[in-house]
Amino acid sequence: MTQDFLCCAKSDFRRNTVCIARKADKAQCKKDKSGSVLRVIEQVYRPHTMKIAEITKNKKKYLSLLLLADEQEDMIDRYLDRGTMFVLDNDGVKSECVVTDEGSGVLEIKNIATAPKCQGLGYGRLLIEYIADKYKNDFSVLQVGTGDSPLTIPFYEKCGFVRSYIVKNFFTDNYDHPIYECGIQLTDMIYLQRKLT
Ligand SMILES: CC(C)(COP(=O)(O)OP(=O)(O)OC[C@H]1O[C@@H](n2cnc3c(N)ncnc32)[C@H](O)[C@@H]1OP(=O)(O)O)[C@@H](O)C(=O)NCCC(=O)NCCS
């Protein structure tokens, strides 16, 4: 596997790293007897070990993460080869993201996921900020499509995206089985956008 490791020294990245450490601190206060939380704290307090890698080969190695965001593998196959994949590693893989060039200055997040035990620590936001910074001179808009779900829309809104347009019946037309989130069946694809320039 070729991994072109990118050491992120930009100030935004450092600021977000500090932010993750603070969040883990908060988590410790809530669950100070949880071994898993304490392990996370050890990791995030070593920010110099955090790296974002572009993955160019064997992207399916990260299938378990990809399936968290898009549960049907043949739908992932529609964009994985043509997409650019990034993995955030902080003493272990924490998050991944796949982006595609949709033309007309639009870069689309096709898949983003954080390992379940590491969600809510800022890794997803960190990947989005990294991508927004990396592509700000090449694309005018970063967009993402998602189901109308309270598990995803608030995350994107917190990351600066605003609702843009809807593709009716995307999930019912394209997936071979009904998809439920929070007990509600997803039907339409909601697109959100964030300006890059
Ligand atoms: C959605 C997902 C990628 C977010 O990644 P994450 O690393 O947990 O997100 P972060 O910790 O960076 O969160 C960034 C901000 O969004 C907020 N946020 C995240 N999920 C949220 C939710 N469901 N509701 C409200 N706010 C949420 C966080 O609280 C944080 O806000 P803050 O910085 O003001 O405290 C992650 O939950 C995930 O992997 N989910 C499963 C896969 C998936 O659904 N992917 C998206 C497919 S469209």
Question: Which helices and strands appear, and what pairs or packs with what?
Answer:
Layout: E1 3-6, H1 11-30, H2 35-44, E2 51-55, H3 63-69, H4 73-76, E3 84-89, E4 93-101, E5 106-114, H5 123-134, E6 141-147, H6 153-158, E7 162-167, H7 170-174, E8 180-181, E9 184-185, E10 189-195
Helix pairs in contact: 1-2, 1-5
Bound molecules: coenzyme A.
The profile of the biggest β sheet is: 8 strands, mixed
From the alpha-carbon coordinates, what is the Rg to the nearest angstrom?
A: 17 Å
Unreliably modeled segments = 1-12, 27-32, 34-39
CATH level 3 topology? Aminopeptidase
Count of structural domains: 1
Measured distance between first and last alpha carbons: 34 Å
DSSP strand content: 25-35%
What structural class do the secondary elements suggest?
alpha+beta
How many β-strand runs?
10
**What's the rounded overall pLDDT mean?**
85
The geometry reads as: globular
Helix content: 25-40%
- CATH class category name: Alpha Beta
Task: Name the CATH architecture.
Answer: 3-Layer(aba) Sandwich
**Which small compounds were modeled alongside the protein?**
coenzyme A
Number of helices: 7
Q: Provide the succession of SSEs.
A: EHHEHHEEEHEHEHEEE
Name the strands of the widest sheet in spatial order: 1-2-3-4-5-6-10-7
Q: What is the name of the CATH superfamily?
A: Gcn5-related N-acetyltransferase (GNAT)
